[in-house]
Amino acid sequence: MYTTLFLGLLGSLGHCVGMCSAVIILLDRQASFQGSRRSWLFAHLGRITTYAGLGFIFGFFSESIWFLSTNLAGIQGSLSILFGIFAFYMALVFIGLGRSPELWLTNLVAKWGKAFRGLKSPAPFVAGLLWGLLPCGLVITALIPVMASLNAIQGALNMIVFGIATVPSLFAVGWLTQNTISKTLSRSLASIVMMIFGIQFAMRGFASLGVVDHLLIGNLMIW
User: Using CB atoms within 10 A as the burial measure, which of 51, 64, 96, 204 is most buried?
Assistant: First the structure.
């Protein structure tokens, strides 16, 4: 769960600020959102509810595969390596050295945008539910360790933690986008942490597959 926590906290600094700023502007133009913290609270609650649903679905899917498979270590190891690759790639995206995953989903993002702009005075919670469905590379990255949990309930809880962790950055999106120094520092910090996560999970995956040995420091497993 700590993975999705730090992914949400630091990843949102490097990614959500740019990705969701347009969504925040669109919602802020709605009369029901102007000057209403309650509306924003319900919007974020709706977004986190969608994340929880996605976490449950992906966790249930991986749990079902686990029941049908006899190679649990192989599944978790492969998913850990996949997360490591995604995390490292997202780290490059944060500092402008990679193509953001949403650009590979242009048609899907366009359809989402059309549906979102078509909302007329939406109820904040409903707007939040749809907001959570925005095709987002960071959300995709978060869903990979969710699948590695091999548990539907745990997957939902992980995504709730992830969603809550993104809230501070989204509330500060205006300041972060206008302050060049803070934006550069936050993205650099997020990139470094994501690279560390990527390396750790990739090595943990290779260790699960028996390619390398697990690294322990006392009772703490590094990978």
Answer: 51
Distances (CA, A) of 47 to 114, 133, 162: 18, 8, 11
Burial 43-55, CB ≥16 within 10 A → b, else e: bbebbbbbbbebb
pLDDT digits (tens, 9 = 90+) for 68-122: 776 777 777 888 898 889 888 888 887 888 887 777 778 888 888 888 777 776 7
Domain interval for residue 61: 2-221
Structure tokens at 128: 């939040």
- 138 in Cβ contact with 16 (< 8 Å): yes
Task: Spell out where the chain has E strands.
Answer: 216-217, 220-221
> What is the number of domains present in the chain?
1
